[in-house]
Design goal:
This protein is of the alpha+beta class. It is built from 14 helices and twelve strands. Helices cover 55% and strands 17% of the residues. It is a multi-pass membrane protein.
Length: 386
């Protein structure tokens, strides 16, 4: 019986080849679009997802735009539970032209030690440490601009005016697929000394502190202690987990992210309507055939199963092709948006979501036609005209 149902359902699915092909095409486009939109949303949260539970970020409580004194470093380090303290500044320079965007940070202290996900060869790390004008770039940025170790990278400052030639001393690779390989680091000391020569009052300030704690379970207590130490000071602090810090940037564009998520699910609803219409048309055309089957002794359940299986076959083909195409499509998309979404990769759960929604769509689209076909009387069915 199972073989008969499967064979008949397959034959029904391919009876109107053009209609079936267009339906499958619609399914492919819909589930592919869903997969890519989900990947865009995941890319938005990539920074937060890659954040460590053992790292805190301290910034000016008013805004990230305002600096903090370097003198806070030792007071933060003395807080119980703090393992190490590094600091940095957002540089925001321009490489050749403004469209060449990549994140640039001046870093100080054990910054690179606190980010083991940035994998740097030992000799390159040593060369970077010895060269005050040295810089380290992520693999993606280096490959995009064709940089090699030893190249001079001229960057024009925007926040910190002037020309800043850096010598590329190292290229880091991400330890994990979710590691951002687009960043560019150089010595905060080089930035600070240059600033003090040009504008002494702006020297010895940092944009943010990165704090490594010994016990991630104490991050709330340590954050509160740090902020209490700088209450009523010239620059009060706001300390939060690295993940919360990253999510703060996401929140600035949260409306866009929500809109993308809504569109992703609307696409599923649209394809559900398309498939439901296809199945309804198919059942209406075959009402007399289902009545004949019932006259031959087939049960309503068997008749309904034919329709349900036909819907599942169409969805399985469409979703299978979409899942297969999602990966190369995402790779092409990643190259196009790598400046804005440096970590753009299909999440592990995305194909499962596509497959799950395909199963739901197949079931919902076929349930009503299957019930109607199962309940049709023999007389009524044989009188029907497709």
């Amino acid at each position: 019986m199972i073989g008969f149902v499967a064979k008949t359902a397959l034959r029904n699915a391919t009876r109107h080849r053009l209609r079936s092909a267009l339906t499958v095409l619609g399914l492919v486009v819909a589930f592919l679009a869903f997969g890519l939109l989900r990947t865009v949303v995941n890319a938005w949260y990539a920074g937060a997802d890659a954040a460590s539970d053992a790292r805190l970020v301290t910034r000016n409580a008013v805004s990230l735009v305002f600096p903090l004194p370097l003198s806070y470093r030792d007071r933060i380090r003395s807080v119980d539970g703090v393992e190490s303290v590094a600091w940095g500044n957002w540089f925001g320079g321009v490489y050749i032209e403004e469209s060449n965007f990549f994140p640039q940070f001046a870093i100080g202290g054990p910054y690179l030690d606190m980010y083991p996900e940035f994998q740097i060869p030992d000799d390159q790390r040593l060369a970077f440490e010895r060269d005050q004008r040295g810089a380290i770039a992520g693999r993606k940025t280096a490959e995009k601009y064709g940089w090699q170790v030893g190249d001079v990278i001229p960057i024009k400052g925007t926040i910190f005016q002037g020309d800043w030639p850096f010598v590329l001393r190292g290229i880091y690779d991400g330890r994990d697929p979710g590691t951002d390989e687009s960043q560019f680091f150089f010595h905060w000391k080089y930035l600070n000394e240059s600033i003090k020569q040009r504008s002494p009052t702006r020297g010895d300030n940092v944009g943010f502190y990165v704090i490594e704690v010994s016990n991630p379970k104490r991050v709330a207590e340590i954050s509160e202690t740090i902020d209490e130490r700088f209450q009523n000071s010239i620059a009060e602090t706001l300390t939060e987990t690295e993940k919360a810090f990253q999510l703060g940037f996401v929140a600035m564009t949260e409306a866009i992210v929500i809109a993308i998520e809504v569109v992703a699910y609307v696409v599923i609803l649209i394809i559900l309507a398309v498939l439901a219409n296809t199945m309804a048309m198919s059942v209406r055309e075959r009402t007399s055939e289902y009545a004949t089957l019932k006259a031959l002794g087939f049960s309503p359940l068997t008749v309904g199963s034919l329709i349900m299986l036909e819907s599942i076959m169409l969805c399985a083909i469409g979703a299978g092709l979409a899942i297969t195409l999602t990966y190369p499509a995402a790779d092409g998309f990643a190259r196009a948006v790598q400046d804005f979404l440096p970590v753009f990769q299909v999440a592990e759960e995305t194909p499962y979501l596509q497959a799950g929604f395909a199963a739901i769509v197949a079931f919902i689209a076929a349930i009503t036609p299957a019930i109607r076909a199962g309940n049709v009387t023999i007389v009524e069915g044989l009188r029907s005209v497709a």
